[in-house]
Amino acid sequence: MNTINKTNTMCLKKLFPILFLLLTFNFYGQNDKSKDDNFKEKREQIKAMKVAFLTTELDLTSSEAEKFWPIYNTFDDKQFELRHQKMKGIFKRMQDSELDKMSEKEAAALLNQIQDNEEDLFNLRKKFISNLKGILPSVKIIKFKKAEEDFGRKLLQQYKDKGAKK
């Protein structure tokens, strides 16, 4: 039974970023100004829910919170830029009509861009964790990572529940 839970957790960990990206880029695919405003509003709502969730889960002291939140907000903004802004152009080139016309050389270049972006994300997270080590005990950093995973699952479940009601 424990193996099944680990497998489900691993699948969720892999699926959540993909689902989130797909949902996010669905908003980007349309040029309607109200869609952009709607996306920004939803992003802010999710961000507020995440901050509240992390605050509850981490139980930071006032001193820890004072140091944690500026580092986290900077990290979150940079992560958003890498995941969404930079990938936006890449995803546009990955449309079916574009893929069919793409040469092997163009595909290799696009793949390199994707890999570079993934490496940038990895390095950003690595630096973030390193910065946290200076302000939080290791146990709280692990709690943070768990809280992020839990929040992702909660958000995904809310999305599933909302979709089931339609």
Nutshell version of this structure?
The protein is mostly helical. 90% of the residues lie in helices and 0% in strands. The protein starts with a helix and ends with a helix.
Describe this structure in words.
The chain is mainly alpha-helical. Helix content is about 90%, strand content about 0%. It has helices at about 1-30, 35-60, 60-95, 95-100, 105-135, 140-165. Helix 1 packs across helix 3. The radius of gyration is 18 Å and the shape is globular. Mean pLDDT is about 80; it is low at about 1-30.
Topology record:
Blueprint: H1 2-28, H2 33-58, H3 62-93, H4 96-101, H5 104-133, H6 138-165
Helix pairs in contact: 1-3, 2-6, 3-5
Oligomer: single chain
Give the termini separation: 33 Å
Number of strands: 0
User: Mean pLDDT score, rounded?
Assistant: 80
Radius of gyration: 18 Å
Helical percentage? over 70%
Key words describing this protein structure:
mainly alpha, globular
